[in-house]
Amino acid sequence: MILLDKVALVTGGTSGIGRATAIAYAQQQAKVVVVGRRMDEGEETVRLIKEAGGEAVFVQADVTKEADVEAMVDKAVDVFGRLDIAFNNAGTVGENPSLIEQTEAEYDRTMNVNVKGVWLSMKYEIAQMLKQGNGSIVNMASAVGIVAFPIQPLYAASKHAVVGLTKAAALQYAKAGIRVNAVAPAAIETDMLEAATGGQDEAKAYITGLHPIGRIGTPLEVANAVLFLSSDLASFTTGATLLVDGGFVAQ
Questions:
Q1: Helix spans in 13-116 (H)
Q2: How far is CA 20 from CA 13, 41, 52, 218, in A?
Q3: In a domain, 204, yes or no
Q4: Are 182 and 240 in contact (CB under 8 A)?
Q5: Backbone φ and ψ of 183, nearest 5°
Q6: Do 8 and 85 touch, CB atoms closer than 8 A?
Q7: Which of 143, 94, 139, 164 is nearest to 251 (CA)?
Q8: According to the per-residue pLDDT averaged within each range, which of 42-51, 144-153, 184-193 is highest?
């Protein structure tokens, strides 16, 4: 078990990739702190972990609020004594694809969740990890944080920012024993994808066709990449953004 007795925190752990990763951490014997805004879904993730013999706790928090973020890290330490791993997964796609029709409120929402939320999370996670002398952080970027995608300008901007934050933090804390990496999925079969496509088969078929591998990815496939970056299997890897994109960026 590659995460035996480690303590791992997952933001956005209420569904999709976050839930799949929380469960994958637990299967590798980590103790898991599941973080999210939706209590019922968060408690469901905890239930699934416990049913599989794992150990987990849910913390209700909004990653755009500094007091909530500080409290989620404090809760991890209060319950499990330390924080070894963090997957900063909470994010939003946004609603309007047209740049000239997007509102200031939508800009603020996208940047607050996707960028400020990652920055705040790292701020308090790294502070705790510095006390311990080690730690591993994985941030949720995106394939459109590497290349642009015309119908998601704000989302693309926010995910490019996550890649930059990841690189800068990795360099700043490399000698402190803290690794910081990112994972960059393309289209993944989640509720977020359903919302982005409006559940329309034609839209999903178009998006599927953008991936040379010929299909959309699964949350577990992203979770496996996060698991690798989180663990000592990636002990010489920091500042990297790992694509899990079915060849989307390679075209």
A1: 16-27, 39-51, 66-80, 104-111
A2: 8, 13, 13, 9
A3: no
A4: yes
A5: -115, 140
A6: yes
A7: 143
A8: 42-51
Q: What residue numbers bound the domain in which 64 lies?
A: 7-189+219-242
Catalytic residue annotation: 155
Confidence of residue 203 (pLDDT cuts 50, 70, 90): confident
Taking only the tens place, the pLDDT of each residue in 23-73 is 999 999 999 999 999 999 999 999 999 998 999 999 999 999 999 999 999
Q: Could you tell me the CATH number of the domain that includes residue 24?
A: 3.40.50.720
pLDDT of residue 162: 98
The pair of three-digit structure tokens given for residue 2, joined into one six-digit string = 């590659």
In a domain, 159, yes or no: yes
Dihedral pair phi/psi, residue 247, rounded to 5° = 90, 5
Report the C-alpha gap between 147 and 153 in whole angstroms: 11
Task: Report residue 36 as tokens.
Answer: 């999210």
Cα(63)–Cα(111) distance, integer angstroms: 12
